[in-house]
């Protein structure tokens, strides 16, 4: 009997999830997407910081010392930067984006064929943060999760796999170059991030349909990505915002949400929680959120590079031994970290409190 009720409850929850990209234009924002006032996009930090330009790092050329320095400077200040001459061919980027847009253009029932509440399943389609069911508030986003290592994709639309394989191979190569340069810039051996520490990868294909009132909701709530580094490509600018901190020499402790847009052909990179831990706090995990747009649908591809689940993550020894610097974080397995990340619903400070020394 209990089993029957449990099954019915599960069926109800699964049926309650409905994708935003259902073929119809939204006329108003349904109640469950309306966030409490202090969580809405108008909450913009305390506004004490002047918005800067997002640093552009040119990965071309062979002056690795200079490139490493630029990555470290941007990583320390923002945890975000753009890369150009990144080696991902324009046609490979275009084909991947077209395939992603084609997926979200499918009828809702064809997308729902990939819907699952099992967070470990790939590929997996969901809406809002997790599944769109049983969540207190819903966010204005549909998402298709794809495997990158190895590539795992839906059969529908048919060209998705053919576009995904070259895209992830090229994006992962660019991410590994950035990780090698970051290691050098931190004073670690070039291979520090290689092997199991960067052995996992997956992709969020995010889709934000036009929203009738972007002031009421968010596409994604403020969070840092869990892994080492994320490589992001978008089809239209506007939407992604990073939290800027004024904690430089002048102090002040101000924060402000600022727009992050890539130059044409560029990719946006941000460091995640694992980079902040391994660098013992020298590099920042870039906190970000997504605001919605009223006119156009936005699609973004976020490729995450992160450790294998069993891999132990800890501050690099070389960075802990410097005078006056103890380890800021205790060692843990990445599997343990992900459990906490999900349980604390992405809340940066609550997550890191579990791992601080
Ligand atoms: O859509 C974006 O620009 C960001 C997506 C994102 O933050 C994520 O998938 O973790
Ligand atoms: Fe993110």
Automatic annotation (TrEMBL):
Alphabetized UniProt keyword annotations: Iron, Metal-binding, Oxidoreductase
InterPro entries: DIOX_N, IPNS-like_FE2OG_OXY, IPNS-like_sf, Oxoglu/Fe-dep_dioxygenase_dom, Plant_2OG-oxidoreductases
Ranges where the Fe2OG dioxygenase domain occurs: 192-307
A Pfam entry, by short name: 2OG-FeII_Oxy
Cofactor: Fe cation
GO MF term list: metal ion binding; oxidoreductase activity
Family indicated by similarity: Belongs to the iron/ascorbate-dependent oxidoreductase family.
This protein's name: Fe2OG dioxygenase domain-containing protein
Native species: Triticum aestivum
